[in-house]
Write a structure and sequence with these properties.
This protein is of the alpha/beta class. About 45% of the residues lie in helices and about 15% in strands. A 6-stranded parallel sheet has the order 4-3-1-2-11-12, sandwiched between helices. α1 crosses α10 and α2 packs across α3. The longest helix has 18 residues. The model has no long low-confidence stretch (mean pLDDT about 95).
C-alpha cells in the first residue's frame, strides 16, 4: 500500500477525497482509530501512545508513507515520533506543514529569518488538545513575525460530526465563532485546524462573514502530497485501496458513506 491516511475518526476523509482527486493514480489506505475518537480531549501522552500504535499497525499493512490527517495527532505526537527515529524507508508527515506554508507564503525548508506576512490577525479553530499544544503558534513564529493568533478550542464539534448530528455541530460552530469574535472582533483569516471542520465549512463561513479568508487543509495537503511524491517517487508502492477502523466497521461505513455520499466499506483493523 503506497500511502496511508490516518485520523482518529472520519474527519480525515476530507483529506482522502482531496488526495484521490489530485492523485487518481495512487492507491490509499485510510485508517480510522474510531474506538478512541476523539483525540482532541485526551492528554498529550495518551495521544502519542495511540498515534504511535496506529502508525505501527499501518506499517504492518505495508504502507511506507503515513499522512497524519489529524491536527491533534500532528500537534501532540508527530515531533516525538520523528525524533525517536523511523524505520528505514518509512515516513510520517503531518497536516500543519502545508497550512503554515500557505499562510507564510514560504516553503518549509526555507530557513531564512522570520519575516512579516500579509495576514496579521488569524483566528484558529481547533480541538482543545491542539489549542493547548500551541504547536501552530510555535511553527508560525519560526517563519513569520507580527502575526496575532487567537485560538478557539471547539469542544463538542467533532463528537457531533462523528455522531452525525449536523444540527448540533452547526450550533456549536456558531457558538465558538461568537466566542472567538469576542476576543478578536475582526480576523483577516481563519484556520480550520481540524480535518473534521471542512464538513462544516459553510457554517464557519456564514458565522465569520465573507470578508474572512478561510484556510482549510484538505486541498493544501493534497497539493503538498503530490509535490512530495514527485520528489520522492520511491515512496510509491503497490496495493489496492482499503479502509480500516478500530471501531464498529458497519457503523463507521454507514457514517462515512453519509459524509462522502459514496459507498465506504470499512473493515476491522
Amino acid at each position: 500500500m503506497a500511502v496511508a491516511i490516518f485520523d482518529s475518526g472520519l474527519g480525515g476523509l476530507t483529506v482522502l477525497e482531496a488526495c484521490r482527486a489530485r492523485l487518481p493514480e495512487v492507491d490509499f489506505l485510510y485508517y480510522a482509530d474510531s474506538a478512541h475518537a476523539p483525540y482532541g480531549v485526551r492528554t498529550s501522552d495518551n495521544i502519542y501512545d495511540l498515534t504511535h500504535g496506529a502508525i505501527r499497525r499501518i506499517w504492518d499493512e505495508g504502507a511506507d508513507l503515513v499522512i497524519l490527517a489529524c491536527n491533534t495527532a500532528s500537534a501532540a505526537a508527530l515531533r516525538r515520533i520523528q525524533e525517536a527515529g523511523l524505520p528505514q524507508g518509512k515516513r510520517v508527515l503531518g497536516v500543519f506543514v502545508p497550512m503554515i506554508e500557505a499562510l507564510t507564503e514560504r516553503n518549509w525548508g526555507d530557513n531564512s529569518p522570520p519575516r512579516e506576512v500579509s495576514v496579521q490577525h488569524v483566528a484558529l479553530f481547533a480541538t482543545p488538545a491542539t489549542v493547548a499544544s500551541r504547536a501552530f503558534q510555535r511553527e508560525l513564529a519560526f517563519r513569520a513575525i507580527g502575526v496575532d493568533v487567537e485560538a478557539q478550542a471547539c469542544g463538542g464539534v467533532v463528537d457531533a460530526i462523528e455522531d452525525g448530528d449536523m444540527i448540533l455541530a452547526e450550533a456549536l460552530v456558531r457558538s465558538h465563532v461568537d466566542a472567538l469574535k469576542r476576543k478578536m472582533p475582526h480576523p483577516q483569516a481563519a484556520i480550520l485546524g481540524c480535518t473534521h471542520y471542512p464538513l462544516m465549512q459553510e457554517a464557519f463561513r456564514a458565522a465569520l462573514g465573507a470578508d474572512v479568508t478561510l484556510f482549510s487543509q484538505a486541498q493544501l495537503v493534497a497539493d503538498s502530497l503530490a509535490d512530495y511524491l514527485k520528489r520522492h517517487p520511491d515512496m510509491l508502492g503497490s496495493g489496492g485501496e482499503a479502509y480500516l477502523t478500530t471501531g464498529d466497521p458497519r457503523q463507521v461505513s454507514d457514517r462515512a458513506t453519509q459524509f462522502l455520499r459514496r459507498p465506504m466499506p470499512f473493515a476491522a483493523a
